[in-house]
Design a protein that fits this description.
Blueprint lengths: L18 E6 L5 E9 L6 E7 L17 E8 L1 H6 L7 E2 L11 E3 L9 E4 L2 E5 L2 H6 L10 H10 L3
Length: about 160
């Protein structure tokens, strides 16, 4: 499948792990969101990563070299429409080049027999108490949440 950038995705069908989008910040700087994984059970969901990157101009693939994710969150395709510069995916850089992997999560905050260990959308097994205490709960984030995280975590850099 050949993809021309930039493009505005209508579903997660054309999303590929490693694609990125520009997030304009209120201080006139730019942050970067990244596709980490697509939801296999949804046409609109995907796991997004906020990159540890901020710049005076929109990111290019080479700007992301060595950058890691600050947070990974489950979002709707509308997140790109609402937070990306002009609502577009800007480009692509392989996650493997930067050692970025899907993070571990738990299915719930409280550890009991129903608490599962997950890697992205994949349920692996029942979580141990230590894992439940270590990993964040997997949960859906609102459309603008990645921009809120960017403003909070990156705007003062």
């Amino acid at each position: 499948m050949s993809i021309n950038y930039p493009f505005k995705p209508k579903s997660n069908r054309y999303l590929v792990p490693g694609q990125f989008w520009t997030i304009p910040l209120d201080n006139s700087k730019f942050a970067c969101g990244r596709v980490i994984e697509t939801d296999p059970n949804s046409r609109r969901g995907f796991l997004a990563g906020l990159m540890d990157w901020i710049g005076d101009s929109p990111p290019m693939a080479e700007n992301l070299k060595g950058c890691k994710t600050l947070i990974q969150i489950d979002v709707h395709i509308k997140t790109i429409h609402e937070t990306a510069l002009d609502g577009f995916i800007s480009g692509y850089r392989s996650l493997e080049l930067d050692g970025i992997e899907t993070e571990y999560f738990t299915s719930q905050m409280v550890h009991d027999e129903n608490c599962m260990l997950m890697k992205g959308y994949s349920v692996l097994r029942q979580a141990t108490k230590e894992e439940a205490d270590t990993y964040d709960q997997f949960g859906y984030a609102g459309y603008m949440m990645i921009k809120c995280y960017a403003e909070d975590l990156l705007a003062n850099k």
